[in-house]
UniProtKB/TrEMBL annotation:
This is Uncharacterized protein. Residues 286-296 have a biased composition (Basic and acidic residues). Residues 256-296 are annotated as: Disordered. The lineage of its organism: Eukaryota, Fungi, Dikarya, Ascomycota, Taphrinomycotina. Residues 263-285 have a biased composition (Polar residues). It comes from Protomyces lactucae-debilis.
Length: 296
């Protein structure tokens, strides 16, 4: 007897439209990380008593954010109902991480990248999206920001992260991103940031989330205090994705103490790790887009 397990609870309509019996014979394929698409994959055969699809999974935190100061300002008005109804939710990934390691930058390489790009024939510059992996260095604290474009407060978290190449790098998280990070993430969590843009805020280079585009994945939780937390500690194998996660995990376990407090105003570089807040990195940039708007 063969059991078919449907993961992700698709609607009856989607089930009827997309499922075909011929899929049973398909090769194993990674699950799509886009929750708005229906994707099917075949799980390896195993005894029914051992079947536990949630075991050893890492978790994806798909969140919504705001791009640019103007959109930051309108978030509280246009998306108030969305922000109040959307709570952070977890979407399981396969045991084998399904991101492309070739597209994941170290922080050192990220800081050497341009903020924006100008294509021939286009007068306005546009932000470049980046993907990188880093660990949280200090407890995320949510604030409420009121921008000059809006009188409604917007959830905001200034996330301090680092990896084995650089530390003290800031990520500005807005809207539901800020809500979810403050509720779900902890110090020393290893995160994957996808589709994140860079900005020059008051002469300091930092990253920021992009509205309806960025994705933040919890790849590994160093400090597990519950059974659910232990599901965020998948076995790290020898594949390229696991090796990237292990590099950051081992670094943060070595240099960042458990329950570390917030960093000082002048972030100090960790041993063998360059400080991303220094002017050295800022001086290497030749493509700064000073017209990029950012909430204050």
């Amino acid at each position: 007897m063969r059991s078919i397990v449907f993961l992700g609870a698709p609607s009856q309509k989607k089930l009827e439209e997309t499922w075909k019996e011929s899929y049973i014979d398909n090769d194993w394929a990674p699950l799509s990380q886009r929750p708005n698409l229906t994707a099917w994959r075949q799980l390896p055969s195993q005894a029914e008593e051992d079947l536990e699809p949630a075991a050893d999974d890492s978790y994806l935190v798909p969140l919504n954010d705001v791009e640019g100061a103007a959109q930051d300002a309108t978030f509280g008005q246009e998306n108030a109902s969305v922000a109040s109804n959307l709570t952070s939710f977890l979407l399981t990934q396969p045991v084998n991480y399904c991101f492309d390691p070739a597209k994941v930058l170290d922080l050192e390489d990220l800081l050497a990248s341009p903020i924006s790009s100008n294509e021939p024939g286009i007068h306005e510059s546009f932000p470049i999206a980046y993907t990188f992996m880093a660990a949280i260095l200090s407890p995320p604290v949510m604030e409420q920001k009121i921008t000059k474009f809006n009188t409604e407060p917007i959830p905001f978290v200034r996330l301090m992260v680092g990896d084995h190449t650089a530390s003290g790098f800031e990520i500005a998280c807005w809207g539901v991103y800020a809500l979810s990070i403050a509720q779900e993430c902890r110090v020393r969590d290893v995160l994957l940031f996808q589709d994140i843009s860079l900005s020059d805020f008051r002469g300091r280079i930092q990253a920021k989330t992009r509205r309806f585009k960025s994705r933040i994945s919890i790849l590994y939780r160093v400090d597990a205090i519950s059974k659910q937390d232990r599901r965020l500690q998948p076995t790290l194998l020898v594949d390229a994705q696991s090796r990237r996660v292990q590099e950051v995990r081992d670094w943060v376990m070595r240099w960042i103490p458990k329950d570390s407090g917030p960093p000082s105003e002048q972030t100090q570089p960790l041993p063998d790790t360059p400080n991303t807040t220094s002017d050295t990195f800022n001086s290497t940039r030749t493509h700064l887009d000073h017209s990029t708007m950012h909430a204050t």
